[in-house]
């Protein structure tokens, strides 16, 4: 399995933000991670990417346990965090070269890879600008470019299109679709059309628990819209 989560729990004080969830993603699957605000999506993603320790349970990425073998697990992952932290004073190319060095890349191979991700993410015309000068959509592209840099086998994208205009949403979706070929992708979103456009499967969580894990085809076969399935499962 590319991602395996087993009985994962994370408590903050007395609150169980993630409450015994289990799910897995096979290689090459693109899975939408849905849930209302505060359901535990970001917390789960932060555990998978090694930014938070679970309170109990296991998580592994590309067969590497995220607690026991954090470095190989992290190397297998490209992560776009929810608030896309970027160094605003850096130029786009400079930032990507810097990020590549953090992944242990260097020299001509790094330069060539940075040019590749700039092309993949449609950043050619912006690559000489400072990140502070970029629109929100282009900053998001820089965050995505950074997450793809080391050619990870798994992408974990936390609300990659939040706050973007409809054109940029469409463009970012295309970037995810093309970069996600041959990769396993877990992404969170509140946009149902996004799920319909990108996913094979949808995992819905509510109050820290998985309340649905189904393929899009299985959900379509119910005859209900994804929106109404979501509302029914998460309004409790
Ligand atoms: N560092 C923290 N300390 C205390 N509570 C936290 C912390 N981080 C998250 N929480 C709480 O854990 C719960 C789950 O939060 P999380 O950010 O994982 O939800 P989410 O599903 O990603 O929500 P959203 O869709 O709003 O981004 C929330 O109630 C949140 O307030």
Automatic annotation (TrEMBL):
Which GO terms fall under molecular function for this chain's record?
ATP binding
Q: Which family does it belong to?
A: Belongs to the ABC transporter superfamily.
| SMART domains attached to this UniProt entry | AAA
Q: PROSITE patterns this protein is in?
A: ABC_TRANSPORTER_2 (PS50893)
CDD domains assigned: ABC_DR_subfamily_A
Domain called ABC transporter: residue spans: 3-232
Keywords, sorted A to Z: ATP-binding, Nodulation, Nucleotide-binding, Transport
Q: Which domain of life is it from?
A: Bacteria
| Name of the protein | ATP-binding cassette domain-containing protein
């Amino acid at each position: 399995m590319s991602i395996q989560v087993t009985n994962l729990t994370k408590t903050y004080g007395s609150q169980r933000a993630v409450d015994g969830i289990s799910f897995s993603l096979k290689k090459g699957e693109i899975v939408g991670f849905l849930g209302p605000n505060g359901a535990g999506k970001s917390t789960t993603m932060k555990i998978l990417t090694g930014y938070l320790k679970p309170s109990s349970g296991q998580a592994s990425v590309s067969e590497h346990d995220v607690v026991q073998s954090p470095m190989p697990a992290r190397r297998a992952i490209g992560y776009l965090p929810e608030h896309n932290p970027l160094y605003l004073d850096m130029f786009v190319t400079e930032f990507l070269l810097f990020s590549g060095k953090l992944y242990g890349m260097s020299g001509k191979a790094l330069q060539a890879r940075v040019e590749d991700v700039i092309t993949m993410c449609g950043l050619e015309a912006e690559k000489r600008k400072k990140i502070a000068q970029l629109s929100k959509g282009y900053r998001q592209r820089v965050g995505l470019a950074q997450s793809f840099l080391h050619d990870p086998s798994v992408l974990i994208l936390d609300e990659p299109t939040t706050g973007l205009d409809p054109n940029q949403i469409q463009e970012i979706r295309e970037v995810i679709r093309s970069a996600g070929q041959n990769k396993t992708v877990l992404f969170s979103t509140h946009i149902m059309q996004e799920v319909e456009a990108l996913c094979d499967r949808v995992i819905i969580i509510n109050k820290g628990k998985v309340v649905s894990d189904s393929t899009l085809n299985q959900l379509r076969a119910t005859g209900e819209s994804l929106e109404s399935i979501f509302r029914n499962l998460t309004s409790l």
